[in-house]
Amino acid sequence: MATLNTDIRYIKGVGEARAKSLAKLGITDLRSLLSYFPRAYDDRRAYKKIADLVPGEMSCVCAVVAGEAKLSRTFGGKSIVKIRAIDSSNSSLEISFFNRPYLKSSFRTGDHLNFYGRVEGSKRHLQMVNPVFEPEETRRLTGRIVPIYPLVTGIQQSLLYYVVPRGLAECPEHMEETLPSDVRLAHQLCHTRYAYENIHFPSSDEALASARRRLAFEELFLLALGLKLLRSRRTFVAGKQCKTVDLSPFFAALPFSLTAAQRRAVDDIARDLSLDRPMNRLCQGDVGSGKTMVAAAAIYMAAKNGLQCALMAPTEILAEQHYRSLAPLLTPLGISCALLTASTKAKERRALNEALRSGELSLVIGTHALLSPDVQYQNLGLVVTDEQHRFGVDQRAALSAKGENPHLLVMSATPIPRTLALMIYGDLDVSVLNELPPGRQKIDTFAVPSSYHARIYAFLRKLVQEGRQAYIVCPMVAENDELPDERKAVTAYAETLQKEVFPDLRIAPIHGKMKPKEKDAVMRAFAAHEIDVLVSTTVIEVGVDVPNAALMLIENAECFGLSQLHQLRGRVGRGQHKSYCVLVSDNKGEENKARLKIMSSTNDGFAIAEEDLRLRGPGDFFGSRQHGLPALRVADLSCDLSLLHETQSAAEQLLAADSELNEHPLLKARVELLFSLNADAMN
Description:
By secondary structure, the protein is an alpha/beta fold. It has 4 domains: 8-40 and 163-203, no CATH class; 46-143, CATH 2.40.50.140; 248-433, P-loop containing nucleotide triphosphate hydrolases (Rossmann fold); 444-602, P-loop containing nucleotide triphosphate hydrolases (Rossmann fold, 3-Layer(aba) Sandwich). 37% of the residues lie in helices and 17% in strands. The strands form 4 sheets. Strands 12-13-11-14-15-10-16 form a 7-stranded parallel sheet, with helices on both faces. A 6-stranded parallel sheet has the order 17-22-21-18-20-19, with helices on both faces.
């Protein structure tokens, strides 16, 4: 009998050639084979009489081969194998196979076969082309619920249909249970073997539901355990405990009063800083909710305790924006500030580094330049990362490593449903800014078809004549895609606008394929009002504030997630001027209509995020590839919320009785295996 760690090559019937193909799917051993779950299922249980078949439908029939198979060729040289099949209704069905001449010998007169495929032709002449077929008694790919696996180029479903049953057959009758028996029984979960058998080849709808529930529970349970262990282990690390700081001078220096949500976040941070362990807090809020001022309060408290602070932003222009807003506020309060980016001149950089090493400098604001080996601190006590989803785990860790267990505050302007935040940032405490400062104007949002372009352009011209500026966003390919589509789409759109629509306006393109310095130069020009209309990909999703921008026009809005649309919309409405967002889409699908209706009806980023989660699932919510947590294979946070709460509770109960899982070695091993791909996760 094999174990779950058995190399896939040694599973009976696999061998070297199939193992090489399976490796393309990430399948290398029996565990990864059984954990390669179907993405969907085809219900092929219902058989139809040939007389009842409807052209255009996928159907399953049981029929008898009537006569010899015939092999012929088309004018183009393609081979065709044709057979005629009849059933008890005495109706006939013509079945054809293209470019599979070897099948001629597979059919004999009188064979009872099951066929599954798309019905073509007319009622008088029904056909199936290249259907699935097998002996009537087999019922492996017909007459049952059949799995559909995710594939890559060059791999076919038939490989999985061949290998998975052989993998299951190699498993011991009583597979090792990862879940403690009391947890399994308390939550009414099926056994491991039953779960694996029925997730791949379900015997019924009920069996599939039971298998899925068990595997989703296990997945979320392991993740919850890992994150809770991570958090508990961090509590044992000694941090830089801060004394209570009188914040009244800081509040008095602000030109406005903080919202209640900002006050709550500041209180959370003050409480964290007072403890003898490092703060690990996420401050998440909608665009314009005032995260920067919360970070300023944290910096003030840390600096007044003699700690140095570092704030890292994803772009030079955003770092400069932070410096321009924080330095005038903090310097009069006795907190020295400096800006460090790749553009900082060598002489200035040397002086800055010396000031950091000596402890003379309290706060440095910068980009990835803060990670340079020559940047050293005397007493780094607080690390703040802005637009957290633009940084990977490693970068966050690299900056923190420049101090001895510094406090960490991460900020994100991407509203995340609390359930998803629980998973993505399970190792962090969360403060939510769910209020906007007074005076922040609602952005009027309209969803229209492309036939409105003339009106939209006329409105854009009117705004520009009034002194305002506009963004136009085009759909883009993934930023890591090597194809030049993104560049071409944006550049071509900008050129067309300039030549045919707005020859008198200042129009410029910006896209992800540009060098950082080029992008920064364009954004600086736009911020300085040297550009009227900026044609862009989502590269401007995280960008500098341009208070004068009053229009966001998003083409092919159906190509973007709701949360992304909301992020893009948040680029306008940052000044005193009335602002607008126009979503252009010709997609008439019901789901798209629902999405655009939500965008038009609310400016609440958290409500939009919840709806986005419901419609799309968690997906790559905001660059989640970077957060370092294992991907979910079975669980779906958009519909498994109650299961998530169950697993959280179960994990807490188990860890309360066995804090390091020493009494559950198999479970502990699975947790550590799950997190092993994340270098930062279990430290």
